[in-house]
TrEMBL record:
<dbReference type="GO" id="GO:0016651">
    <property type="term" value="F:oxidoreductase activity, acting on NAD(P)H"/>
</dbReference>
<keyword id="KW-0274">FAD</keyword>
<keyword id="KW-0408">Iron</keyword>
<keyword id="KW-0285">Flavoprotein</keyword>
<dbReference type="InterPro" id="IPR023753">
    <property type="entry name" value="FAD/NAD-binding_dom"/>
</dbReference>
<dbReference type="InterPro" id="IPR036188">
    <property type="entry name" value="FAD/NAD-bd_sf"/>
</dbReference>
<dbReference type="InterPro" id="IPR036922">
    <property type="entry name" value="Rieske_2Fe-2S_sf"/>
</dbReference>
<dbReference type="InterPro" id="IPR028202">
    <property type="entry name" value="Reductase_C"/>
</dbReference>
<keyword id="KW-0496">Mitochondrion</keyword>
<keyword id="KW-0560">Oxidoreductase</keyword>
<dbReference type="InterPro" id="IPR017941">
    <property type="entry name" value="Rieske_2Fe-2S"/>
</dbReference>
<dbReference type="GO" id="GO:0005739">
    <property type="term" value="C:mitochondrion"/>
</dbReference>
<comment type="similarity">
    <text>Belongs to the FAD-dependent oxidoreductase family.</text>
</comment>
<comment type="function">
    <text>Induces apoptosis through a caspase dependent pathway. Reduces mitochondrial membrane potential.</text>
</comment>
<feature type="domain" description="Rieske">
    <location>
        <begin position="66"/>
        <end position="161"/>
    </location>
</feature>
<protein>
    <recommendedName>
        <fullName>Apoptosis-inducing factor 3</fullName>
    </recommendedName>
</protein>
<dbReference type="GO" id="GO:0097194">
    <property type="term" value="P:execution phase of apoptosis"/>
</dbReference>
Amino acid sequence: FWVLPAVEVKIEVVIPEKERSKEEMSPNGKASPLIYKVNGTARHYHLEEHPIASNPYHNPKDVVEASVCHVKDLENGQMREVDLGCGKALLIKESGEFHAVGHKCPHYGAPLVKGVLSKGRVRCPWHGACFNIGTGDIEDFPGLDSLPRFQVKIEKEKVYIRASKQALQTQRRTKMMAKCISLSNYNLSSTNVLIIGAGAAGLVCAETLRQEGFSDRIVMCTMDRHLPYDRPKLSKSMDSHPEQITLRPKEFFCTYDIEVLTEMQVAAVDVKSKVAVFKDGFKMEYNKLLIATGNTPKTLSCKGKEMENVFNIRTPEDANRVVKLATSKNVVIVGASFLGMEVAAYLAERAHSVSLVELEHVPFKKFFGERVGRAVMKMFENNRVKFYMQTEVSELREQEGKLKEVVLKSGKVLRADVCVVGVGAVPATGFLKQSGINIDSKGFIVVNKMMQTNIPGVFAAGDAVTFPLALRNNKKVNVPHWQMAHMHGRIAALNMLAHGMEISTVPYLWTAMFGKSIRYAGHGEGFDDVVIQGDLDELKFVAFYTKSDEVVAVASMNYDPIVSKVAEVLAAGRTIRKRDVE
C-alpha cells in the first residue's frame, strides 16, 4: 500500500506514546503558512519551528519545578538521577555547568545514569546511543528519538529543574521536522529523493532530511509488507507482532510527508536518466537516490531445502510462524551465527528439543574468539541446546510433504519438525549489476566517507555497503549492524544536502541470549590476541581484542558500562595499547 501525506496536518511534535519495552529548521528561517492547491483544494502548511527557548512550556499546568540538590552535591563529571515528583530527570555537572535531560535512553529504556559521560555527551550503557547534554539531541545510535531537555536554574546555592510533566513521562523527544511544500504539482512518477529499502538506514535518512528543513518529496520503497520495524527483534523477541515493533506509527509518515511504498521491488536503476524501474514495470524519476537494500539470507544447497517448515527468518511473519511450529516440537538450527544462536536461545524454553549444527568447532570463534565462544557454548548447553559441530547438513527428509529429519554429513540423523537456517547473508545488490554503480567482488556497494557511490547523487548505506572505517585507518569494511545502519542513513542525508559530513562512528552491537547480553564495540576483524579480565565461567567478563599492540575491539558480559567507556575512548581518536589492558 501507499502511505500518502495526510490532508489535514496539525503543527505539533509527534511523540510515540507507547514506551518501548526494556532492554529543525526551515530553509528560510521562520516559514509562514504556505497555501497551494492539491486536486483543487487549498491546503495550509507550516514548516515546523524550533520551540522558543525562553518559554518552552505553553501550558502552565503541565509544568513542574523542583529543588533537586545543593550545588556542591555534584562534582564535575558526575551524573545523578533526580526525582521531580511526577517523573525523573538526569542531572549532569560538566565544566562547572549543570544540565538536565531525560534519564532513560529512548531506544530500550536503559538508565543513562549508568552510562558514560564524556565531553558534552552521555553514552547509553546498553547499546551505545549518544546524546548531547546541552540539547538532548541524539548524536549516535541506535534509536530515533532525542532526550527531552529541561531548564536548570541556581538560586541560593540550590539547583532547581523546571520540566514539562509530559516530557518527564514520555522520556523522549522527536526532533522538529519540515514538511513537504511541493505537493501542488504532484506527479506520482517523480520524486526529489528516492530511498530503496525501509530499514534503519532508509528511515534515518528520511527523518534527517526533514529535520534539516528539506521540504521536497521523499519516497521510500520496500519489498516488505510493513512500515519500518525493529529488525533485531525478529531473532531476539520472536513472537513480537509487526505493530509491536514498528519504529514509527503510520501517522508519523503522514504528518511529515514521508511516503512509503510497501511490497515494491526495484528491478533496475538507470543512473544516466535517473530512473528506478520496479519489478511491475512502474518507473520513478529521482534527483537523489539512497540504496539501502540490506542483505539476503543464504539458503542451504542440499536436497530438500525447498521443503515446508524450513525457514530463513526475514519477516515478523517468519519469526511468529517458527515460534508457533516449534512449540513442544523438535527444532534444528543450521549455523551458529548471531541469528542462529539468538533463535536457539529464544526457542530453548519453548521447544521439545533444540539442536544446532555448525561448521566451526566453537560458535562465534571468528567474532568473539575461542575462549568467549566456549563460555557462550557452555551457557547454551546448560539450557538444553545440543551442538553438532564441525559438520554440515547433507539432506532434509520429509514425511507427507513436511520436514521430518535433518541428515548431517557426519552420518547423524536429527529429528526435526522445524529447521531455521542462519548461515550468513549476501548483499541484496543483484539489481544493480548493469547500473554502473561500483560494486566489489562480494557484491557490496563501495562508498566513500560521505556514503557516496561513484555516481554523483547516488548514495548507499547499511548492510549492503563497504565504507572506510576511521577507527581502522580507513580500511574498507562491511559492518552489518543496526547502529551502523542508522549512522549511515544520517550521514547520507546530510551529504545529499551538501553538508560535507564524514562518518567517524565506532561500531557498536549487542546480542541477547537467555536474558544475558554481550555488548561489543570496535572492529575486531583480524585480531591476533584476546586479553580477558573477569571470570568467563561466571559469564562476568570483559574481552579486549588486540591486533599487534593495539586494542581494536572490546566485548563484555555483566560488566557495564565498560564497552561504552571503550567506545568513547575510541570515538575520541585515542589509541588503547595492549599493555593498558593487561
